[in-house]
Description:
By secondary structure, the chain is mainly α. The chain has helices at 2-25, 93-105, 109-122, 126-138, 142-155, 162-175, 179-192, 205-226, 234-244, 255-327; strands at residues 32-36, 40-44, 66-68, 75-77. It is built from ten helices and four strands.
Amino acid sequence: MVPFKASIPAVALKIFVLLFTVLFISPQGEKILVYDEEKGIIFIDPNEAPQQKAPQKKKSSSTVIKRKKSDNQNISRAKGPEDIHVNRKKDPPDLYLKSGREYYKNGDYKNAIKNFKYAADKDLKPEYLLWIGKASRQLDKPNQMLSIMERILKDYPDSEVADDALFEIAFYHQRNNDYAMATKKYAQLAEQYPFGHSYSNGEAFLEVSRKQRRWMRNDMLSTLQFIGIKGETVEKGYRRFQKLHALKVTGKGNQETVTAIKKAHRNKIEELERKAQSLNQLKEGLFWIYIAGFIILITFFVTLFIFSKAKQSSRQVQLLKGFISDLK
């Protein structure tokens, strides 16, 4: 019994340390970076990531139209927005843009990009290209989106949507863990377009640029600290991590470095989750040990009580036998 009693404080201490680590030190799971056309840059839980919206059938004054055929005799009604421009070669590009934005708003990005391309074919404008790029991003074609945005910056650097294109490029690099390039592009956005606003939601790009650069720096500082890499600045943290993991020491958050840091972060979280699972198993094991011990203790006392009663009854029988013997 002595060794068991001596081990109780050690077991209790281990449980306390593991419980404290899991509840108070373990960070939340990694969030996904998403650009919402109305809310701007937001972070969502991977398990709650929204699926691509299904196209919605929405009636409006432009979705049901009359169209004359060549003989001017038969009249038919188009029952969907996909028929709005059939055989209407004189429709202005702005009408295609408006139709495409309706599709975009309803989550039908394939038809949206089709209408944006119609508009661009009729009259190539940078805003049409911008919407083609946005729809490409929503269709999970980031390389196509990047190519379009770079084209806008190259061919239309003074257009009203050049700042939007530069923002999309910066966000592309941020999503791909190239924090160094993203920081550079956000800084360029603030310098070249200090009064720029988002074409879709009106956000001031100067504030967005500052916020995202600050977020990337703080994200890396806290993540590096969590995996045991401490440094007064994020650049020193990068250098120490790069040295420890045999990466090229640049002191910058390039794609290779940030990806490796996030991988180490996930591994640490998985380790804590395993410890939490071990803790739960330990707690469950101790619970059943206590139950078994309690049952054994109860059984012992019941057995002792029965033995005592049996012994007492035996003495009474002996006394009774002696009393009967004296009567004879």
